[in-house]
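User: Can you write out an input/output pair for a complex, sequences first and structure second?

Assistant: Here is one pair. Inputs:
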Amino acid sequence: EAQVTQNPRYLITVTGKKLTVTCSQNMNHEYMSWYRQDPGLGLRQIYYSMNVEVTDKGDVPEGYKVSRKEKRNFPLILESPSPNQTSLYFCASRVLGGNNEQFFGPGTRLTVL
Amino acid sequence: SQQGEEDPQALSIQEGENATMNCSYKTSINNLQWYRQNSGRGLVHLILIRSNEREKHSGRLRVTLDTSKKSSSLLITASRAADTASYFCATDSGAGSYQLTFGKGTKLSVIP
């Protein structure tokens, strides 16, 4: 089944404790992206990647890191989480070029205390 | 960056009625897409309309696009309780970043 998976789905942590949210897709998509969703603000892009070893900042990259060592994986790293990073996070992937839909993972609800 | 803005923010209708949601955006686009999100879950792609198309249908969904007004509408006909969800429009500028820019969504409630 074609899908984007994220882990963990729920995470409660404390300020300053490094964490990684994994994202994997099995559709051989070149493009992968991370979003955060906050009430009243909609979805905002954090980082994106157009291929292995190619990453770039989205609209709200501060406090986040990403890596793309393999085509299928695109982990999101919070080196020193803060309470303002409490949010619902989505990973997504799509085929590059043309008119193509984006496939979303199920989301990771992160709470930083 | 450009952004789609949905209208209304919330909509409540009876089962069987039609639901119309609107989206406005600011700059030129390559295509516009509509997504559905059930509470707290991932977004699911519904329909894509290209900039050179004016109307598109998919089952009970009808999407229109007016590039001169920079607006789109999503019509769900004969709504069902299962259509209760948030609906987002997303614009694809076709520029090098392939970024999809999402609006804040319309929360639709269909009352059985």
